[in-house]
Amino acid sequence: MVTDALLDNAVLQDPSRAPSHATPTPARPDIRVVPPPVDQPAPAEPSSPATTSNTETTPANESAPTVFDFNETILSGDVKVELSDKARETIKLIFKQRLDAVKRLDNSAIPDPTRPTSLRDFDRILTSLGPDTLKRFESNTFTKADFALAWVLITQQAEMVRWATGTSAEVKKSIFRGKQSVRIEESGVSNIPSDYSRTIGIDEWTGEAQNRYLGELSKLQLTLEQSILTDSSLPTIERPTKGLIKGFPGRFADYFGIEPRVSLDLSLGDRKSGHLLRDSILDFARQELRATNQELSTPEQFAEAALSLIRTNPQEYNRILLKAIENAYMDIAEDRVRDILTKPETSISSAILEKRAAEFETPATQETVIKAQQKATEAQTALTEAEAELKKFTDPEEEIRRGIVEQKNKIKDIKDIQIADIEKEIEGLEQRRDRFENNFLQTPQPTTADAKNLAEYEKARAQSLQAIAHYDDLLRQLHTEHRGFRIQQAEAERLKLELEGKRDALEVDQERKDKKEEAEKKLKKGKENAGKANRALEREKRRLSGETTTDEIREQAASIRDIKRARDENFRGRIAERLFAPGLENEFAVVHLADTAELDGKITGAERIRELVFGTGDPKYYQDHKDRFRKIWSDKAIADAIIWIYQATDPEILALQAGENSSAFLKKVLPLLQENPRVKVYDLMRFLINESVKSAALGNPNLEISGDYRSPLPNEAEAPRGTDDDEFEAVRPEDMEIIPPPRGFLAGGGTT
Amino acid sequence: MISKKTLISIAPLKEETKNDLLQKLETMEEEKQMAIVDLCWDLISSEFLTKLGFTRQNMMLEMASGEKTYTKEDFDKVEEDMFSELLQKLDAEGNDEKIDEVRKQLEEHSGGQTLNQNTSNDPTNSDNNPSSL
């Protein structure tokens, strides 16, 4: 039954002794267990410790009806419940610690407006019944009702530790059964601080210490259950195989779990838990309760009314709760309908995966190839038409664009080359002409007496004048040409402006823009369809030619269905449930997933990862098809996914990634799982599953993730690298149904 | 095969929403139709299992208070009766193919619970029980 480890558990008795634990708070060395949060409703007068703690009462003869009354009826058998001494000692210890905590809370009634001092409903019950129960545990005369109280106490204790530490996965049920989503409360981010966590410092415990403590509590719960359920006086209904709490069959949760849970939830007042369905149910439940009692307004009153109803008329309480649930479902379903009708799609449906698998299984024939060929031809025709349609918009735009560029080039050419050249030539000619003129002007005219020189002078003068006239002619021609170029430049400027005006007019023509956008979408779709049709044709040809064997086809189809099943299990929260199960004995604890040891050539961590995802639901099936799962998630694919999720940039890792030795690569990156917060491991599982779903929807169940790792930019940190969303969208077959995730259930990053 | 219109008609949705969906169904894109069908099965199975859980818990309460005594068969019969009622609403009575479809959909949309015999799932399964909320 209860293990020795429980009693020996240092964590249970003194959290500060937990391995690697932070130094305990010296001011409160006596505090060993979790006092309840102090923000609970004030205790009702009749059940306050002052009025009840000294009264000799038993659950059966309590004057006011308690939640245990009807449970006592169920439990009133004669069979002696067996419990080991050690288990009894442990229960006593927990009772004492909790009662001490409750007493301390209640004694803190010194007025302090900033700090409510009231007790939880359960603490009030505990104060009333606990001392007697404790005595009976001490004298070994406990009743089954005492067992019930102990069970609830331990359950509460575990729940409070989980909330206070914020390290366990809070498995949230989504509105729709079968599609649970999971919210992970990450350590240090989503924990709910309370006096409890602040005082005792349990939020500083290591994950291992928390796990150990929760694991031991779970074992003790199971012990109590096993003891009670051997009682033949209980209704002979088959035991469920699973329960509300990991490792905990549902029966006791059925009987007792509802009371503290619902009363606590109702005590939230207007505060939202963040769980859409639960919050909605509570809203409707309050409305229903108010319908029977208009005076209800405060959270305390609602909690009291709910408790009272549970005690006095549980059937009526159930009726109210059922109505609230139905209303909540309907309310949220309305939103979902709106989402479906109005919003674009974001995730792949199970139907498309099944369809893809079925496509593999349908035998290929000459007819199917012809049909595929026809589809490919039709898709190609549609693509050509779409291209022509878009060209109606793009061609004029292109023509204008080309015209503008042409005119710009022309302007540049005229200005930078032709005009520049001619101006340079004019300048040169002018200089030469000026030289002639200057030389002539500077040469003194000989006297008439010097006939010879005068004749030469006249001759030179005539030559100079002739040369100057020649240059003047040339310059006139060049200036004419220059003017011509300037005119051409101006004309090009005018044409450019005219084209730019046309371009601007097109850009502001909204109707045209819409039509063009439509044509672009059509073309994109046309490309997708053509690609899909061509791939389908190739597949059919390969199948018909026998290139793809029947076994391979079966494997492909089975793999797609396996991925669908894994996705469904994840929806239901079962993978997270297994991953986050407390205790190192959990075979899927991170330490095991990160195990790099090799066994029969297989890396243990990768095997665990595959088993966690594909073995959840049907472990035997997983064992029988291990090889297939190794193909679906190869070592390389797992390692690549790890790099993406953990954003590894170590050059050595990247070198291994680029290499051929996937085993060495995986061994190098697996330890990252253990070196980072545990919640990241779940991100990794989710990433692998989502990428597989996308890949399977495209007909390839064996995941491949691109190796060209790069650090994601801030705005794409969530985008997968292997089959990037945009990339995926570009190749998504048109028949691929995509549905949005349930509203409000994807806090902290959603998934399919 | 259960028709889409039948599913929408019996799903626990507001009447105006049902009418709106029925009106738009023909022109709706196929993928949206599939999403609506999926939603309807979600809702129908949720309603089925929730009612079943409450009915059984009330039976237990009656046993606890000593009002009545039930056998395991009684607990099973509740489910059989509710399943028959659902088949009737879905116009699936006597049609093996449709009955199989309903059973399969309930299983698929009920968190993978295996329905035994005539749809039965475990009466004390916490997923069917209000306490699981």
Oligomer: heterodimer
Give the largest interface pair and sizes.
A-B, 60 and 53 residues
Low confidence ranges of chain A: 1-79, 108-118, 166-194, 196-200, 229-265, 707-752
> Order of SSEs of chain B, N→C?
HHHHH
Helix-strand blueprint:
The complex is a heterodimer of chains A (752) and B (133).
Chain A: H1 4-8, H2 10-13, H3 49-52, H4 68-75, H5 85-107, H6 121-138, H7 144-165, E1 169-172, E2 181-184, H8 195-200, H9 207-228, H10 250-266, H11 276-292, H12 299-312, H13 314-342, H14 350-361, H15 366-442, H16 451-508, H17 510-545, H18 550-571, H19 574-579, H20 590-593, E3 598-599, E4 602-603, H21 604-614, H22 619-624, H23 626-632, H24 635-646, H25 651-658, H26 662-669, H27 672-675, H28 678-697, H29 725-731
Helix pairs in contact in A: 4-7, 5-6, 7-9, 7-10, 10-12, 11-13, 12-13, 14-18, 15-16, 15-17, 18-28, 24-26, 24-28
Chain B: H1 4-10, H2 15-24, H3 30-64, H4 72-89, H5 96-108
Helix pairs in contact in B: 1-3, 3-4
Short précis:
The complex is a heterodimer of chains A (752) and B (133). By secondary structure, chain A is mainly α.
Structure description:
The complex is a heterodimer of chains A (752) and B (133). In chain A, the strands form 2 sheets. In chain A, strands 1-2 form a two-stranded antiparallel sheet. Chain A has helices at residues 4-8, 10-13, 49-52, 68-75, 85-107, 121-138, 144-165, 195-200, 207-228, 250-266, 276-292, 299-312, 314-342, 350-361, 366-442, 451-508, 510-545, 550-571, 574-579, 590-593, 604-614, 619-624, 626-632, 635-646, 651-658, 662-669, 672-675, 678-697, 725-731, and strands at 169-172, 181-184, 598-599, 602-603. With 752 residues, chain A is mainly α. The longest helix of chain A has 77 residues, at 366-442. With 133 residues, chain B is mostly helical. Chain B has one domain (4-132). Chain B has 5 helices and no strands. In chain B, helix 3 packs antiparallel against helix 4 (72-89). The longest helix of chain B has 35 residues, at 30-64. The model of chain B is unreliable at 111-133 (pLDDT under 50). The interface between A and B is large, with 60 and 53 residues.
